[in-house]
Amino acid sequence: HFIRRENKLWHGKNVLVTAGPTQEEIDPVRFFSNRSSGKMGYAIAEMAAARGANVTLVTGPSSLPQPHGVQVVSVRTAQEMYDAVVSRYAHTNVVIKAAAVADYRPKHTFTNKMKKSDGNIEVEMERTTDILKTLGSQKTGQLLVGFAAESENIEENAKKKIAAKNLDVIAANSVTEAGSGFQGDTNALTLYFANGNEASIPLTTKKDAASQLLDHIKPLLEGQ
Ligand code: CTP
Ligand code: CA
């Protein structure tokens, strides 16, 4: 069938997108999580599928409808997301990690609902595995695109993550600026490429930001 010339590089590529928050359980009814809605990742998955890629969306809990033409894998915890992503990595051409993965989880998960008692409690937290860093250390030609949610020193912090996780591109967004970041329908991104290039995506809808992001990384698909 007919493939638009500008979509040729995307056609048949296996693209893995992660989206949403993770939930780290402390007991059967309570968990630690964050404000991610999943909108940015879902928009990227939808736009990549529209360009002809084979898209798998690994998503934490989100109330969004499943994007059209995308294979959806639902997970809850950072560990489940790790398993879902790492098991697909060998057959993936491009990974775009928009998910807001929990950095810590409760060290103990209680089987029964915790009962309250007088006085305060402390919850001991342990680190989750850094999924993207793991992927960066096991790269066999995949294109790795990370996201950086920052509230200060955005450029410096984002660039550090490129090196620390062996990324090709990082999309930095300010989580404090009006109109960008978690939950809303709009976002503004700055892309930092491993080769030193930069590109900015000024405030726009998340769907349009997703489209522009894909257009910016398209040249890197050459030779994938
Ligand atoms: N990430 C991941 N696994 C984790 C934590 C983060 O794959 N356990 C990914 C995110 O999906 C994102 C990138 O790493 O693409 C950067 O996430 P971010 O939270 O901005 O950075 P961290 O490396 O976790 O550092 P910090 O939260 O301290 O800024
Ligand atoms: Ca983090």
Automatic annotation (TrEMBL):
GO molecular function: FMN binding; metal ion binding; phosphopantothenate--cysteine ligase activity; phosphopantothenoylcysteine decarboxylase activity
Region (Phosphopantothenate--cysteine ligase): 15-224
Pathway annotation from the record: Cofactor biosynthesis; coenzyme A biosynthesis; CoA from (R)-pantothenate: step 2/5; Cofactor biosynthesis; coenzyme A biosynthesis; CoA from (R)-pantothenate: step 3/5
Annotated DNA/pantothenate metabolism flavoprotein C-terminal domain residues: 11-218
Annotated binding of CTP, by residue: D103, K113, F147, K161, K165
Catalysed transformations (reactions): N-[(R)-4-phosphopantothenoyl]-L-cysteine + H(+) = (R)-4'-phosphopantetheine + CO2; (R)-4'-phosphopantothenate + L-cysteine + CTP = N-[(R)-4-phosphopantothenoyl]-L-cysteine + CMP + diphosphate + H(+)
Cellular component aspect of the GO annotation: phosphopantothenoylcysteine decarboxylase complex
Cofactor: FMN; Mg(2+)
Cofactor info, note text: Binds 1 FMN per subunit.
GO biological process terms on file: coenzyme A biosynthetic process; pantothenate catabolic process
Top-level taxon: Bacteria
EC number, UniProt record: 4.1.1.36, 6.3.2.5
The keyword Lyase belongs to this UniProt entry's keyword annotation: yes
Keywords tagged on the record: Decarboxylase, Flavoprotein, FMN, Ligase, Lyase, Magnesium, Metal-binding, Multifunctional enzyme
Entry's family note: In the C-terminal section; belongs to the PPC synthetase family. In the N-terminal section; belongs to the HFCD (homo-oligomeric flavin containing Cys decarboxylase) superfamily.
Function of the molecule: Catalyzes two steps in the biosynthesis of coenzyme A. In the first step cysteine is conjugated to 4'-phosphopantothenate to form 4-phosphopantothenoylcysteine, in the latter compound is decarboxylated to form 4'-phosphopantotheine. Catalyzes two sequential steps in the biosynthesis of coenzyme A. In the first step cysteine is conjugated to 4'-phosphopantothenate to form 4-phosphopantothenoylcysteine. In the second step the latter compound is decarboxylated to form 4'-phosphopantotheine.
Protein name listed in UniProt: Coenzyme A biosynthesis bifunctional protein CoaBC
Organism annotation: Salipaludibacillus keqinensis
Covered range of the whole protein: 178 to 401 of 401
